[in-house]
Amino acid sequence: MMRPVIGITMSMRREENRLTLHRDNSDAIFLAGGLPFLLPYTTDKHCLHQMAKRMNGLLLTGGGDIDPGLFGEEPLLGLGEVEPERDRMEMALSQMMIEANKPVLALCRGFQILNIALGGDMYQDLYTQREGVIQHYQKATRDHASHTIQIAKDTTLRKVAGVDRIRVNSFHHQAVRRIPNGFIVSATAPDGVTEAFEKIGEPFVMGVQWHPENLYKKSAFARHLFQTFIDACKA
Question: What PANTHER family has UniProt attached to this entry (predicted)?
């Protein structure tokens, strides 16, 4: 059986003019039955349409901060380094995949840019914009699940997890605030910060604030999440 082609976004190391990818992203796709297709930076709409046409699904990966100008705000002091070209590319690709009814799985930064692409907004810096937050940038290895999330009932994520409460890893200081129309919040942190959303109905479109690719070897939940995504890409 042919493996579904999964486009995977990458990060830029500007000082080296080099695109990079944490290997866990492509390994998780391979192990779940997909065929990774690494996506170089471009904002050429014709090229992006050709990419979207060839992909069966899109994996939006983690990375740096998102330009607040994309959701109508000025930069705050807590904002980190932004990648405007990556922002524009990922927003365009996300919109194209949604319009084509193709599955999308978005991780951490990917969750945030998908939210912005579809009309939501976000916190530029949780620690200065919201009171009473827990530690969302853990001081532990990437495969350590540091805090719990509460998963909403009657959601795809609940079916994937099989439980209503589970621990995840966490490496972010930005977060989703208002979500787009047609989506529901499917998980929250103990402090109320949105940890996941999903599209109502088909196809599978989900964003999660944690990094399941780093938990794949240890966590049945992470493996089931990637498997559910790949199964949707085969449909």
Answer: GLUTAMINE AMIDOTRANSFERASE PB2B2.05-RELATED
Q: What is the pLDDT of residues 131-155, one digit of tens each?
A: 999 999 999 999 998 999 999 999 9
Give the whole-angstrom CA distance, residue 124 versus residue 144. 25
- Kindly list the structural domains of the chain, giving each domain's residue range(s) and its CATH number in brackets, ordered by start: 5-234 (3.40.50.880)
pLDDT confidence tier of residue 14, bands split at 50, 70 and 90: confident
- pTM for the structure as a whole: 0.96
Residue type, 21: L
How far is residue 6's CA from residue 30's CA, in Å, rounded to a whole number?
Answer: 10
Catalytic residues: 108, 211, 213
What is the DSSP annotation of 39-65?
Answer: E-----HHHHHHHHHH-SEEEE---SB
